[in-house]
Amino acid sequence: MTDRATFTPRRAVLTLGVTQTIGYACSTYLPATLAKPMAADVGMSTSGVFLAFSAALLLQAVTGPRIGKLVDHRGGRLPLTAASLLFAAGLVGLAIAQTPAVLIAAWFVIGFGMSAGLYDIAFAGLVGWFGADARRSITGVTLIAGFASTIGWPLTAWLEHQVGWRGACLAWAALNLLIALPLHLSLPRAPAPKPEPAADAVPVSDAAVPGDLSKMILMATAFAVLAAIGSAMSAHLPPLLGALGVSPAAAVGAAALVGPAQVAARLAEFALVRRIHPLVSGRVAVSLFPIGAVLLIALGGVAAAPFTILYGAGNGLFTIVRGALPLALFGSRNYGRRLGVLNVPARLLQALSPFVFALMIDRSANLALAVMAAGSVLAFGALMLLRRPADGT
């Protein structure tokens, strides 16, 4: 365990960047590659596997505020460490599943791991350690973890080809135990003493500040839409491109561009972090998906690469916004619990969207894209209605 006094932002970024990459690759990005062989092997439909995955995601909505409050008081080490163990246990459960019931139960274990170990908890941990200065660290973690899809999809596909889907699950379980778990155990046990609010932050107390509710509703709306899109794309991007006539190899290749696009957008944000408000970043982020969707609908498979690049850049930016915007508008006090509450609608839609999107793709890939693009327009409107406290823009 690292002493809090020697725990630097750089070390935090490197540690959590690696563990978040493993966490997302072995959970959120797993079904896109392994759902079909899983379903065939245990005797259930592919949509049934996605339904189990959606139910696992739903646990984040139920547990998010409580785990966020725990991080506010006790730091991020405990839930993040527990997540590594839960991921490993759930992945082993998938690997040994012979019936749908066991497979579903294993996904629920992974769901508890996602609740305790993905971005929201990592962000809350960073705010606990570094206070109002955590935005740069949040961006840094997402820079590294932006490669989760680039690593996860091809590596899982390669493992499935080499050792089968069960062997792929066991390999990811081993990575959690051998890499993520020791790294999480090296984190400080407790957060730093509560810092003074930043000079430009809106004061926040346990009581609601006038205007907080409307800000929370607008922010939660944007968060929910982007979470639904991100969840659907994470689970279905290669199959979506395939439904539009892209070959399997080209679909995986185009999907692999998401990671570099996310990282490129985050590098730009990192360079401008002290010059640009996260609200501006959010507005830019949500505008990119509908542009890419229109291109893909109009041009078909030839626009696969531009679409994935635009989606990746927007998703990469918005991941930072999810952590930085509440910090900028409300300050660091009660950050973990506030982020958990803000993301309850997001987690509900995130849980439903892979299953619903699968049904829409079966009917019409263009319809699925159009619905997601319309949601992005709604999110853009919500962010346009939000105002920065300093200058009202």
Describe this structure in words.
- The chain has 393 residues and is mostly helical.
- The chain has a single domain (4-385), classed as MFS general substrate transporter like domains (Growth Hormone, Chain: A, Up-down Bundle), CATH 1.20.1250.20.
- The protein is built from 16 helices and no strands.
- It has helices spanning 9-25, 31-42, 46-74, 77-96, 100-117, 119-130, 135-145, 148-185, 212-243, 248-255, 258-271, 278-299, 304-330, 335-342, 344-363, 365-385.
- Helix 3 packs antiparallel against helix 14 (335-342), helix 9 runs antiparallel to helix 16 and helix 12 (278-299) packs antiparallel against helix 13.
- The chain starts with 8 loop residues before the first helix and ends in an 8-residue tail after the last helix.
- Residues 197-208 have low confidence and may be disordered.
